[in-house]
Amino acid sequence: MLRFANTYAVVLWLGVPVLILLFWFADAIRRRALEKIGDSALIRRAILQFIPSRRRWKRVFLLLGYSFFVLAAMRPQVGTKLEKVKREGIDIVFALDVSKSMLAEDLKPNRLANAKSEIRAFINHQTSDRVGLVVFAGDAFLACPLTIDYDAFLMFLESVDITSVDAPGTDIARAIDICKQAFTDDKPRYKAIILITDGEQTAPGDPISSAIDAQKSGIRIFTIGVGTPTGAPIPVKDASGNIVGYKKDENGAIVTSHLDGATLTEIAERTGGKYFPARPGSEELRKILAEIDKMGKREMESITFSHYDERFYYPLGAAIIFLFLFWIFPERKRK
């Protein structure tokens, strides 16, 4: 099967009609110049020793050389074989808290930025696991289904912020339920949720009950707490990102958001997972990776890849030959 890896080079074919027009203009200018001297045909034969057919051949060589060069630039490839690759890993769904409390700055620059940094660091250590992303606040939704395309996953991750979920508050129970729905098979093993939040449940749901249901489905939950027990106020920002105040309750008092490590610990322990506080560095990341490795791996799927061999050197060789002929082929008789 023939394919072209660089289809953008197709625009270079416009050079063919451009060369033909240049040939036509050059002939017209040369013909007018000779007619001013005398009989142009006589001058070409007797004085210039010019042979018209040879010039035509030179131009054919130039056009062919250019055409084969364009063909080489398009990088023709030929499929040579099919190879089945088996991949082993597990399914991991990240549940990322994007509620306004994640703007608290007890972790610099803020909790949400630290949470994204934790996920990016984790993905950079991945090689074979499928990953998905659920974002939540007062509600939750699947932002990225399970995939092994880590670049696409990171693109979705970068696009989410506190405006991604309209419903205010924090509903961890809803996030766990949506994560359960993200898993595409009913096998009772090799499934994990990494819940990244400050742990403050402000919605009516019960995250412990949701965690128990997840455990019954063979899902382990690892929790990462972002924030500090002492807490920090939640900044209110304008359209330019400048802090214009802090969130207040109905009595006008500034709201302080605290890390609820106890709830996150219980969620993790109910499912056989573990709780990790978010800290600078990679120590906690290594611990999470070690725990996930203990879950074992399973064959996820068998993917058929098409391997293509480059064939650009054939038209490139032809281009060099025709351009060489253009260079050495004479237009005039030898004296």
Largest sheet: 6 strands, mixed
Mean residue pLDDT: 86
Radius of gyration: 34 Å
Bulk shape: elongated
Number of helices: 10
- Strand proportion: 15-25%
- Name the CATH superfamily classification of the largest domain: von Willebrand factor, type A domain
CATH class of the largest domain: Alpha Beta
Q: What is the CA–CA distance across the termini?
A: 52 Å
CATH architecture group name of the largest domain: 3-Layer(aba) Sandwich
What's the number of domains? 2
What class, by secondary structure content? alpha/beta
Write out the strand line-up for the largest beta sheet, numbering strands in chain order: 5-4-3-6-7-12
Specify the helix fraction band: 40-55%
How many β strands by DSSP? 13
Task: Give a brief rundown of this model.
The chain is an alpha/beta fold and 335 residues long.
Topology (SSEs and partners):
Layout: E1 2-4, H1 15-37, H2 40-47, H3 52-73, E2 76-89, E3 91-97, H4 111-124, E4 130-136, E5 140-147, H5 150-159, H6 172-182, E6 191-197, H7 207-216, E7 219-225, E8 232-233, E9 235-237, E10 243-246, E11 256-257, H8 261-270, E12 275-277, H9 283-293, E13 298-310, H10 313-328
Parallel strand pairs: 3-4, 3-6, 6-7, 7-12
Antiparallel strand pairs: 1-2, 2-13, 4-5, 8-11, 9-10
